[in-house]
Design a protein that fits this description.
Layout lengths: L1 H9 L8 H16 L2 H30 L1 H27 L39 H20 L4 H15 L3 H13 L4 H7 L4 H10 L2 E4 L3 E4 L2 H14 L13 H4 L16 H18 L8 H13 L4 H17 L2 H16 L8
Antiparallel strand pairs: 1-2
Helix pairs in contact: 2-6, 3-4, 6-7, 6-8, 7-10, 9-10, 10-12, 12-14, 13-15, 14-15
């Protein structure tokens, strides 16, 4: 009944649809994970079972004192029940994913993950960390407790929770509509440090790459062409959130999954495969990916690249698109490799030539 009271308080009575309601639900989900709500609720049946065994011990003692024959019969029945309990506890260790198990089964080393398939069979398990002295172990444990209490006491800001929710939907949701809605929300969201850090979780870049590639069709001999223009545009804007530089963040950004999109035969290998309305966005995204990974652009077909860049940079575009392109070009000119600086310099000179560079401040 106590656990039901916890869950009743945890689950809201009426589902809200506003952003604040979603933040409240997400905060409760975070707190449930931090306080190990599922493990505590799962331990309640174990307490009931221990209470039952203690009752059986008292029953055996009582009956043996009153009548030895009845007490012996009760003892035999209890020993059989105990043997059955022990057998069902260790069966998952002998037979992976066995349906017969008890609450204690998950605490046996190796049983919890014995029935799960984790990645490829060729993956090697990382070596176990070396044992530490008792003082260091105690110090690390105390530090972990202090960090937990600090995190549990802190109430995250609403923009931080909103960014965390979007990243959670991208990596955990199994519904295509929900994922696409999250991508559109990220594409139109304001660039913040919370959003960028949340998007740099494990798996978010891989989701972007996989689903972004589905917006294209590949025909042998004709290269890559856009199959879903509106979907590709949303993913481009969303991935631009990943490559936004924030000097307030001390952690380096990791864009290696997105780097695969720049390879030969991939959607972002050339920006001129896209329609003119998307070429400036794709060029800005390519520059951001190259800078984030510390790579330089290739030098193949420089004359064609030069003509395409001049044509793309000379086209009229919306102010926010021009701002993204010019910002990326300035960053590439300052921090990029030789080829990337040459391309960014050509973009900026063309923008300055047509008189649009001053409008991007």
């Amino acid at each position: 009944m106590l656990a039901k009271g916890w869950l009743a308080k945890y689950i809201p009575a009426t589902p809200g649809e506003s952003s604040s309601d979603a933040c409240e639900r997400h905060l409760r989900a975070m707190r449930a994970g931090q306080w190990r709500l599922s493990a505590i609720v799962a331990a309640i049946p174990f307490l009931i079972q221990m209470a039952l065994f203690l009752f059986f011990i008292g029953l055996v003692i009582l009956t043996l004192n009153d009548n030895f024959g009845i007490g012996l019969s009760v003892l035999v029945l209890i020993l059989l029940a105990t043997a059955l309990y022990i057998l069902t506890t260790i069966l998952p260790w002998f037979s992976p994913a066995c349906p017969f198990q008890t609450t204690i089964s998950d605490f046996i080393p190796g049983v919890a993950g014995k029935g799960l398939y984790k990645g490829s069979a060729t993956e090697q398990r990382p070596p176990a960390p070396p044992s530490k002295p008792i003082f260091e172990t105690f110090s690390a444990g105390w530090k972990a407790i202090v960090d937990f209490l600090r995190q549990a006491h802190r109430k995250p800001e609403q923009p931080e929770l909103e960014a965390d929710m979007l990243a959670w939907v991208l990596t955990k949701s199994t519904k295509d509509d929900s994922i696409e809605e999250a991508v559109r929300a990220i594409a139109g969201a304001k660039s913040t440090i919370f959003l960028r850090d949340s998007l740099h979780r494990d798996g978010v870049s891989a989701v972007f790459c996989q689903r972004f590639s589905q917006c294209f069709k590949r025909v042998p001999g004709l290269g890559v062409s856009v199959d879903d223009v509106s979907g590709a545009e949303a993913y481009i804007y969303a991935m631009l959130q990943l490559v936004q530089p924030f000097h307030q963040s001390e952690d380096p950004i990791h864009l290696s999954p997105l780097l695969s999109l720049l390879m030969l035969g991939q959607p972002l290998h050339r920006w001129d495969n896209f329609k003119p309305c998307l070429q400036a966005l794709v060029c800005a995204l390519r520059i951001g990916i190259l800078l984030g990974n510390g790579n330089d652009d290739d030098t193949d077909q420089w004359e064609q690249t030069k003509r395409s860049l001049a044509k793309m940079a000379g086209m009229g575009s919306m102010p926010y698109v021009r701002r993204l392109l010019v910002t990326a070009a300035v960053q590439g000119l300052l921090s990029g490799g030789t080829n990337l600086r040459r391309q960014c310099g050509l973009i900026l000179s063309k923008q300055l030539q047509i008189g649009e560079l001053t409008l991007c401040d």
